[in-house]
Records
---
Amino acid sequence: MVITKRVSTDIIIVFTILITYSISHAGIPEPGIIYYGKVLDESGHLLTSGELTLTLTHASTNQSVIKTTQLREIKDNDINYSYSLVIPIETDITGYPVSENAIELSTSSVTFNRSAKIENTAISMIDSIQLTNKNIGSVENFLISKNGDTDNDGLPDAWEEKIIDFNGSDSISLITHVHPEGDFDGDGVSNYDEYLCLSDPTKANNTDSVDLNNDAKITIVDAIIALEIITHVLQKTDINVEINIEIDDVIVILRHITNLK
């Protein structure tokens, strides 16, 4: 009798939990996407007050997830940021559809229109992103500014932030401190050319390490070898190369053989 009563009580508890879960949750919760970053005002200075509204809209269904947060100063490794927030992710199972203010991701790439706005200001951004289930639990740095190039120098704000954040202790703290004609890494290639070539503005490149066939010359052959290593056609061990080969190195080779500065 005691056992029967205990079992009945357990059934009631489990039933209550299930009912509560179905009311308070829709899909099965997954680790969300953590967005963090800087918000720049119209002068390129860090904004740490105000309200941010971040919206992700499914490009096909037009279903939107809207999250708001108050801007505040967040310090990490000598770098200051303006916000952090989480985009909820859920998995749809029978009887538990994804809730209205969450997104569902799968192995297939899904396009979302992303918009960010600082309330009562002219600061806003709109772009499109591709998300898959590989983004579940990811941490994304998303810089927000009025038009993506606050100082109108041809270098996107987010790209300039790579230089600003490289050393939080130096004097380069604003996007206006990063100039297209400058050469932050001192490799002879201007910041603007590094941007156009998709190379790393914080990594100095030189031709001493890209004579990949060891013939004491830098030629198109070295560029081909570098590309084959990057695309895994060749292994570094095949030609006794010890350094890491990246696209920046291909750019350095091509600039050298075409005499581009």
---
Amino acid sequence: MIYDPSAYSLSLRQRAEGFLRRLAKRTPEDVALTFVEDGSCVEYLGALVEQIEDERSAFVSAQEELRILRETFWAIASGGPIPMFLTCPFCSTRHIDEGKFATLSHATHSCQECGLTWRPAVVATVGVRYLPGFNKASG
């Protein structure tokens, strides 16, 4: 599902406007009592604000995920190797391509621990320490 901020903003705005229209139909004394005694107006508007903040947070997360996917897509589309976490199928040692192999397109990898040579995919891959968009500081 693609996040559409305008749809959520419109929905929230419509709900808030409807609430304010209903509030406008009341007498001033009624409104004052609702705010002071009942607190429902404040609670409702507070809930709307929380919902907007949650949706904004979800939108920022979706943007970050999209950025990572875009970087990976361009790496693949440009003919570069696909970054992957590679582990030797025999001894389970993590395989990280370094030096010239970090950018060289290759599909065959050799374990530096046991010497096994294998192909993790049909296309060119590169063993990485961190996936694109992530690093040691961000976890």
---
Amino acid sequence: MTLRFVLIALGWAVIVSTARADAKVLTRPDPERVPRQYYVLFKEAQELYKLRLLYADPRSGIKKPTVLPDVLPITVQDSHSLALALAESVHGRVFGSDESPYEIRRGFWVGLPEDMVSILAKDPRVESIEPNAVVHLSAARVREPTPNIIGGGREAR
């Protein structure tokens, strides 16, 4: 019985130690970023399910969010609803598609004031916030179209 309690306690310690209260806010040099545009990446489903346990334990340091507190962004519908509500809570606006630049992950593009990024990062369902990048088009070699030759050296069929 004591050994079981110790194993459960150790398992709880692992859950607590891997959870973060604040999202990572990634940076990009100023000339390489689009001002006031970010991609917000939600945590993976496995981590999101653990949050409910962590909310219940004050020792975890993870507080239940104030914006749609019972919504986990696991389904497309819940992700979209949460994205809209989170953006509104920080005076932002969701834009672009729901398609994630990260394979099989959920998130959203948001335009928001720079000083609201740290507030958005406090939501425990958010893994990271990354500034949108400026895209540079480079001169590419353009292939000349192949002429449709009828007659001149080839016979039309």
